[in-house]
Amino acid sequence: MSHSDLYVEVDRSAYTNALAESSPITKTFFALSALFLCVSALSARAFIVPIILFIICTSLTLGIAKVKPHLYLDMYAYPTLMIILSCTIIALFFGVGEPLTQINLQWTTWTIYKNGVTMAINIFLSVMGSLSCLFFLVLTTSITDLSLLLRRVHIPTVLIELSILIYRYIFMFMEISHTMTTAQKLRLGGNSWLKKIREVSLLAGNLFIRTLEQGERTFVAMNARGYDGNIYALEEFPKPKKTMLAAIILFDVLIVAVIFLTLNSGVI
Amino acid sequence: MLFRVENLTHQYSDGTLALKDISLTVDKGERIALLGTNGSGKTTLLNHFNGILKPTAGNIHFEDKPLKYDTKSLLNLRKRVGFVFQDPNDQLFAPTVKQDVAFGPLNLGYTIETVKKLVDEALTTVGMTEYANKPPHFLSGGQKKRVALAGVLAMQPEVIIMDEPTSSLDPIATSDILHLLLQLNKEKGISLVLATHDVDIVPLFADKLYILNKGKIVSEGTPKTSFSNTELIRKVNLRSPRIAHLFEVLKKENNLPIADELPLTISEARREILRLIAEVCKETKNSV
Predict the structure, then answer these.
(1) Mean pLDDT calculated for residue range B194-208
(2) What pLDDT, in 10s, does the model give residues B51-67?
(3) Do A220 and A97 belong together in one domain?
(4) Parts of chain B belonging to CATH 3.40.50.300
(5) Which residue in A211, A225, A228 has the most chain B C-beta atoms within 10 A of its own C-beta, making it the best mutation to test that interface?
């Protein structure tokens, strides 16, 4: 069984959430259109829109798909930290034109521009909103469904087959590398920095060889079941409900209206 | 006669002579066990049955016709001869259980409806229907083995070849898989060829036993006759089933009048013990 890394939890959530059986077309259409609108709202500086989308997507993820809040917070942790740092820097050091405040330092005058603060706030809200749309999609739709969707949209089958196989073997090899690292640690490896580098390189080399061997074995096994170069699809995911699609279109139109109404409202 | 192997020799590209002059037959409905230590050539031999390996010398016939190795012939062969690998991680590659089991039938060109039916039947037979939409990395070892078997069953083979089916399985999982295989053999007439080094399961399952040592067949016969040759078993670094060993010791050390063919299973042991007790009682009665 896989242990609880974040990517394992995300994968598990994609299969066990309350919306797992819904049509991936609906979910993808909603999430991608919301994402697009969120990013457009950034240039339109309509700061209400990302907040609205954040609230809606988070409620869908936690309330309707019943994803564990713990997991949601874990996913937000690093990006939020990064975006807060970045936006602080932007607010404090970027911008042109009208100043907000000026601080006199001994060697120079440090100007904080309204422009910069505007940019920082809008970027922060937009990123948090966009992440919520993306997390909704990622936490409720499995890679299997997504790859079937891509097949429908006529992405070259080679890429899809590669992604299916890579998906399966990522899990296997993360497990193996974890086991090997633990085995190294249990023999008290990694005391010094240089030793650690050497151990990681040994691990990577060994793992590479193992992946080659596994590829060979899997190929033989696939041949033994009649593989002829094409991975045929057992295509069956639920058809999207027309009412849902109409509702999403309506929702998108409303958001566009809100963008127009609140144009340039996010300016300090 | 399904398979006929005559004087099969196989040499790997690095010069290792893995099989030397192997001859054996597989008949319809038979349950055959290939017993041998690690490195005795079991897997190499199995790989010849569905065309993964070609003989360096000698030949192998399926239904009296020599195997052909072009794509079409191999596909036809593999439709009828299913192979379950030792490590299910080698065999399970698809994102979900259902898609993996569907892989074989889809490659055989059946319609989607037929494939769905075959997948459902196969999963029901191995008892994994609730796991149909789960990814393989959520499954335990025994469950993965069952899904691998389902993937082969869905192709409706006449012969199933399994490489070490019970290795790394706990006792319940071992007994479950053996029951399943016996059921498939009785109800669907599927012939079985198993390679194993687990000596204790052989009497429960096989009606014909070949013992391999260093690429050669050193014994051919039923489990009863083969395991009675305890010297040979030891010479090839195997051991007898526990029960046979016990009775061998009783025979040699305690001179009990045990039959020449040693009991191999618990029910045979029970019969023999009760018989011995009855004889001892009779003798005591007679001498009184």
Answers:
(1) 90
(2) 999 999 998 999 988 98
(3) no
(4) 3-240
(5) A225
CA distance B251 to chain A (A): 47
How high is the pLDDT of residue A1?
Answer: 36
Does A186 contact B at CB distance below 8 Å?
no
**pLDDT exceeds cutoff 70 at B115:** yes
Percent above pLDDT 70 for chain B = 100
Q: Do A158 and A242 fall into the same domain? A: no
Q: How many CB atoms lie within 10 A of CB A216?
A: 11
Cβ-count burial of B83 within 10 angstroms (0-12 exposed, 13-18 middle, 19+ buried)? buried
The ipTM of this complex is 0.80
CB nearest to A164's CB, from B87, B94, B102: B94
Reduced to 3 states, what is the DSSP secondary structure of residue A146? helix
Q: Between chains, do B104 and A223 touch, taking CB under 8 Å as contact?
A: no
- Mean of the pLDDT values across residues B87-116? 89
Whether the Cβ atoms of residue B31 and residue B185 lie closer than 8 Å to each other: yes
Its domain, for residue A179, covers 143-237
* Same-domain pairing of A123 and A58: yes
Q: Does A174 touch chain B (CB under 8 A)?
A: no
Residues A136 and A4 in one domain: yes
> B102 touching A, CB under 8 A?
yes
Residues in chain A: 268
For residues A101 and B78, what is the distance between their CA atoms, to the nearest angstrom?
78
One domain for residues A255 and A134: yes
Structure tokens given for A86: 């970045």
CATH number for the domain running over B3-240? 3.40.50.300
pLDDT (average), residues A79-89: 94
Q: Are residues A188 and A258 in the same domain?
A: no
Nearest-neighbour CA in chain A from B14: distance (Å):
17
Is the pLDDT assigned to residue B10 strictly greater than 50?
Answer: yes
Number of domains in chain A: 2
The torsion angles phi and psi of A112, rounded to 5 degrees, stand at -105, 120
